[in-house]
Amino acid sequence: MRHSNTASGIAADRGIAARRHMTTDELRGLGTHQVVYLRAGRRAGEWCVALYGADGVPLVIVDDVEAAAEVAAERDLKIIAVH
Questions:
Q1: For residues 67-78, average pLDDT
Q2: Residue 24, Cβ neighbours under 10 Å: how many?
């Protein structure tokens, strides 16, 4: 993606360049306290949904997606899709 020669375009290009040179630890911490993802599974034979931090650390296990969304909203976290 090419940016124009505006100040915002130049700043965006610098931001992209800086992310390309991040250390493993910096990359691992990117978004850790801002985004989460969900994963459904079984626990003790019952369906549940786990809410994971961006770093892969489980935050909470709840009964359904709606409850997970409520927890994320209460903590001001954004749920992202992971493919």
A1: 93
A2: 7
Average pLDDT, the chain: 79
Distance CA 45, CA 83 (A): 26
Provide the terminal-to-terminal Cα distance of the chain, rounded to the nearest Å.
22
pLDDT of residue 30: 66
Which residue in 67, 82, 74 sits closest to 31, CA to CA?
82
Write down the pTM of the prediction: 0.61
Radius of gyration for the chain, computed over Cα atoms and rounded to the nearest angstrom: 17
Residues 6+ apart with CB under 8 A from 50: 38, 39, 40, 41, 58, 59, 60, 61, 62, 68
Angle (CA) 47 79 82, round 5°: 75
Residue extents of the structural domains in the chain: 1-30, 32-83
pLDDT digits (tens, 9 = 90+) for 36-62: 899 999 999 999 999 998 888 899 999
